[in-house]
Fold these 4 entries.
Entry 1:
Amino acid sequence: VISFDKELNYLIVIPCVNRDERNAVNIIEETFLGFEKSGLFESKINYHILLFESGSNDVSYLDCLNGFKTKYPGKINIIFTKQKLNGNTNTYRMFDYINKLPTKNKIDFIVWMDDDVFVCKKFIENADAWIKRYANFSLFSSLYVPYQSSPVKDIPHIHHAKLPGFYGTCCTIFKPIVLQYPLQLWFHKHHEMFEFNPDVRFRESIRKHFFHVQNMCVCSPSIVQHMNIGSSIYKNKQKNKGHKCNNFIGTDIDPKFYENLH
């Protein structure tokens, strides 16, 4: 358990793409309006947001973030590329970029999110409290849980989930040291053969190094929800319909982990 008095540094990383070019809906502005409504930008928690644009032909879909960047200077940066990347190659680029940051050793936890999410009230304060209490008990953990999980007796707001069943990167938490595993095995022949998505490549890369680990710690209730609007942009899916959790606390509710996890 990390002391609640210790100030941690978080790097929030979000891959993004002009979803209109992938036959889907751009909703990144809704995500950032939700961040603002949650109080994220006015929080005293130490964090920085990096967006990784995947080489879209038209990047004007990100113009909607200019107001946030002006209003909250120094909080949001966008990392562009001229390469045309997909979800897998852009996520690999994101991990490689973070791994090479000269300030990597100053980052306590990476918060890997999607660009189409809802968050609870006081999201970052609640995430900070949960991470300090529980995140050291897993190779990685999640504050978004669309899969089955079970309570841990007499311990609040933590569930166990089967690590081999993890999917959905709406709010995945891990330390920078974990990056070495997906970077080594991201393009493993098995991952390529079965065209695994980023969440599965991340999970399986870690499992190949820690095959004996069966459980992971996850948040209960979920404090992040997948919008499920602009998702499923891949050709092998017929409908714009993706995963969603059924235990999201809601955008107007503050679970107050920062009070009741002390």
Note: The chain has eight helices and eleven strands.
Entry 2:
Amino acid sequence: TQTQQRQRVERVCVWHVQRHTVLFGLPQHLTVGPLTFARNFDWKDDLTLFRHDIEYVNESAQAHNLLALHIMQHFEKETDANTKMVLANEALTHFKKAQEIYPPFFNVAYDIGRVYSAINQPDSAIVAFEYALSLNKDLPDIYLRLGDLYFSKNNFDKAAQHLKEYIKMSPLDINGYNRLSYTYYLLKQYDESIATNKKAISTLPGFVEPYINIAHVFSDLKQRDSSMLYLREGEKKFPSNPQIIQAIEVLQKNVSPSFNK
């Protein structure tokens, strides 16, 4: 009977929760919680089972979330562009159903943003991530993603705002400093760009990029002596580094070194 089928589907498989703590690249601390799907080894795979059984737990936000995550696992493995788009839209349907059932479901809002990013729809991704951020401000990855998305839209003010927050939360990621300093550079906020790179030097002394970035800014400001000063400092610390050697050679030809971004 349908009641018996529903009872079968709603049996919780705790071992399966532990096995699938990470789905669609989901950070481990964003656990999906108890699943509402029964395990049935007669099915070809979990996705086939979940697609079949979703009708019995159609009002479960977690069930739709889990199904969407499994669909996106197949999306990431798929190589055909048309099939990937079909899978992405199917996943979005279930993520949005989960959000409709339980609007403050942070994981769902976050993953909607990631799906839209994966299919190159930045405007929709921004909306999804901003909503996720309104639910949870403690995940650094959202700030980085929003920073990159706003940068791709040439909204450098918004990009800088989010990248600055990202660095506060992830001060050991050199890519955050590179992105923020370059964003400030494009905004012609040169002092902020230089300050960001100096912060990177003090926080992450093992990276050569900040020296080259500062040299680039000073070179564009026609302050060649200051530019060379930072390159020579970088050379002392990284005497065999090909990036610093090349940057010095480039500057000696009165050309700005390349910005790391």
Note: DSSP finds 14 helices and no strands in the chain.
Entry 3:
Amino acid sequence: HVIATGWNSRIVDVLQKNPQYKKVAIHFFHGLGDILIFNSTYKLLKKSFPSIEFQIFTNKKGISKAVDGLIYSNTIEEILGFDVIFSISYHEPIVTSAGIISTKLIQCSNSEIGFDESIVTDVPVHDLDPNINRLVAVHLDAQSSPHETSPDQEIKNKIFTCLISQGFYPIDLHLAVNAIPDVEVVFSLIQACKFYVGVLSGPLVLAIATSPEKVICLEKNLELSRYTSADVLKYSIKDFNDDSFSKVIQKLLANLN
């Protein structure tokens, strides 16, 4: 049972008239910014009807963790098992010659949700873990002895693909600093990232000096032991495969925890 929200079908009004509704889906197929601004109103809706189980759905991949209870669904037809589904339009703000007189959230709260604008806020709210860090510093292009230390392009691609498949966002230090070895920029990136993956080169040594527990050293024809006895995880790119590299990543993450 799908209800398109509007002045004659505001969510609060419908729920008050239909106490039999115990499982309610919110069809909110809008972007990240809209869902973050709508989040506070969604929380108020759940608080106002504590006996109802709410679930909110988006058709935008990759944003579900931004809001508690947000689930990805490609189409409204895939949303099953609910007493009612409210489809929210979330229209554009009201604009007159004098300017914007109502934001999208205020307009939605009045005309689609059923909350007076005096009790809602259009300040965005997220539910992400503030301690989460999905960034990985990567350096695969040594400036000296590249044939002895750096992987070929195929292995580089596999390293990036493996990191991405595990939910990380690799930042290539070589590209990030535009090939300029600014040590403060490299240091800042190393500090900001969850961990560091790199070949034998200056940035690797800087990463070891900064946080050795966060380092995966990629060895090829030269080994780290000829330069330092520092205790860091090592991986041979001569024998690269997704499974073994993934295990090294998981070992590092286990050590960090």
Note: The two ends are 46 Å apart (CA to CA).
Entry 4:
Amino acid sequence: TGSRLAANNITGVRLLGNHVTTEGYSLLSDSSGDNISSIAAVGNVLVSNKSDAVEFNAPGKTHASIALVGNVLEAGPGGVTTNSGFAVGIARARGVAVVGNTITKSRREAVHIEDEQHTNVVVGLAAMEVGRAGVTVTQSASGLGEGLPVVGNSLRAAAGNTSSGIIAEWSPEGTVPGMAVVGNRLVNFADGVTAGNQDMIVAANVVESATGSAVKSAGGGSVHGMTFARGCNTLASTTRGGAFIGKIVTPSEPVTLLDTS
């Protein structure tokens, strides 16, 4: 691991202009430490060959007010587990701004967000070679996780990707409420944007060459807004009776308008 924040009451740390390549985490805050706050990582190159480039992991603890800005991140192909390989992982951390980062590749999600997190934003990512979803947000077992703005990102899937560009996962715990997915460009994913069982704002996104559908409701929630679909065979799909309130614009005739299978 490159930099690990693992003590109580760490505050006011600045990581500026470093180049870290490691088999483990390049930057990690974990549950060994509580009351970690006011952390800024700016202008670094952070590479993990087998784990996550950056992980803010705070189950049962308080890690808050964190800025991850203008970094180059990579989670390489060396790992094998399904719970690592993220360029950025956030678990219960709060007040995290992931802004203006470049992701050269991620073995799994570019950004993975879970647990009782809130007040986070993902803005302005430029991500290539994404192995799974571009951004995944899952609900906590307690149901206290919140949605977040995912705005102005350009995400491109790696070859053979079978996941979504942006997904609010539906699970027995439900889906985080209050997701706003706006102004993103999503290329070569199986599905563009996938909603769960909560209503979701999906507006002014461009979905290109989705092998599944441009917009999907996987848990019965409604999708609100306009999507531009380019080179997508299916415009919308739903598996549990979700509604699409708005419109999907496409320059070419799709094979399927709405798939309910």
Note: DSSP finds no helices and 29 strands in the chain.
